[in-house]
Write a structure and sequence with these properties.
The chain is mainly alpha-helical. The chain has 2 domains: about 120 residues, no CATH class; about 45 residues, no CATH class. The chain is about 55% helix and about 10% strand. Strands 1-2 form a two-stranded antiparallel ribbon. The longest helix has 22 residues. The N and C termini lie far apart (about 45 Å).
Length: about 180
């Protein structure tokens, strides 16, 4: 087994761990976020790099959004034409509501988000592990010791995880202090 093959296997394991953690936290309505988790492995000389990718909104699912960052102003908005409200309508349609019912539920949810942030307290009922944030950290932490041991035993290699500065700065901006 080459080191590059082992890195591909590790990335597959991490991809599975991320998808499993998303499901455990209850983020599975359409499966689009889970399906968006992809990776690539590249080699450049002595360096082998594995990079994992996820849909942009995965950052917000991972770190949450504080109430003051929710893009909803109550009655002073655009009458339900914002992408945020449209996304909530789609969410409720995915849960079986239609027409006015879905629109009403979307606005009710927006009011809760504007008051509590995301995730809201009520959303925890969709989680089987009691968590709604930190799926990336939880997935990596659950596998890191075994991955490091395997690398060390097979290749005397060290493993370095880098979390993008953009994710760190978004966490500071969008999550509660």
């Amino acid at each position: 087994m080459t080191l590059q093959t082992l890195i591909v296997d590790i990335m597959l394991e991490l991809q599975t761990a991320l998808r499993d953690e998303l499901a455990a936290q209850g983020h599975v309505l359409t499966g689009k976020l889970s399906d968006s988790i992809m990776f690539e492995v590249s080699a450049d000389g002595d360096e082998i790099v594995g990079q994992m990718y996820v849909a942009d909104y995965g950052v917000f699912v991972n770190v949450g959004v504080t109430a003051d960052r929710i893009p909803f102003g109550g009655r002073s908005g655009k009458g339900g034409t914002s992408q945020y409200i449209q996304g909530l309508i789609s969410f409720w349609e995915g849960r079986g509501l239609s027409g006015r019912e879905a629109i009403g539920a979307a606005f009710a949810t927006a009011h809760v988000h504007a008051r509590e942030g995301m995730p809201s307290r009520g959303s925890y009922k969709y989680s089987s592990n009691g968590e709604r944030l930190g799926f990336v950290q939880d997935a990596v932490e659950s596998r890191i010791a075994r991955i490091e041991k395997t690398l060390s035993e097979k290749f005397s290699a060290t493993l370095e995880f880098e979390i993008a500065d953009a994710v760190r700065s978004l966490q500071n901006v969008y999550s509660a202090p």
